[in-house]
Amino acid sequence: MKDKGTNLIRNEDADVGIGTLIIFIAMVLVAAVAAAVLIQTSGILQQKATNVGKEATSDISSNLKIVSIVATVAGENATSLNFSMEISAGGNPIDISKTAVKYIDDTHASFIPISTTYTEERTLDGDGNILSPGDLGKFYVDLQTNGMNLSARKTATLQIIPEKGTMVIKDIVAPSTFGGNTQYQIFP
Question: For the whole prediction, is pTM greater than 0.90?
Answer without folding.
Answer: no
